[in-house]
Give the backbone structure.
Amino acid sequence: MKSIGKLIGIARACGHLEPMVEAAEAQVDIADGIIGDARGRAVDRQVTVLFREGWEAACGELGVILPWIARRANLFVEGVGTPRQGARLAVGDAVLEVTKETKPCALMDRARDGLRVALQPDWRGGVCCNVITGGTIRVGDEVGVG
């Protein structure tokens, strides 16, 4: 892995459009993504990852500070650039592969008017991943990108 960052947040939603709930650790599974997250079986989108630098740039553009879970991503990472399709992220015991950009949806404007547009440049909305290797992840884990 080339770049080393840090996992600074984990969240999951128990049902579609349910509130995101933060956790200190999670189990990641090849079949189910983050255990307990309603979207974990989605094709090409088992786990979503948001990168602090992109999130802060979008919020800064709007002149607001919003909690990262407003983005509805599963993982919040700092210290690495947003990887592109095909890249792998080693997080704790798990390995994820980037499948595509997480496209900002209309829910973002419910969190803050204009957020959807602010997340569009440079993949600021994060990435979607599939699980290659399951395992335990914890806030504070190193994140390798390669």
Remarks:
- The first strand starts at residue 3 and ends at 12.
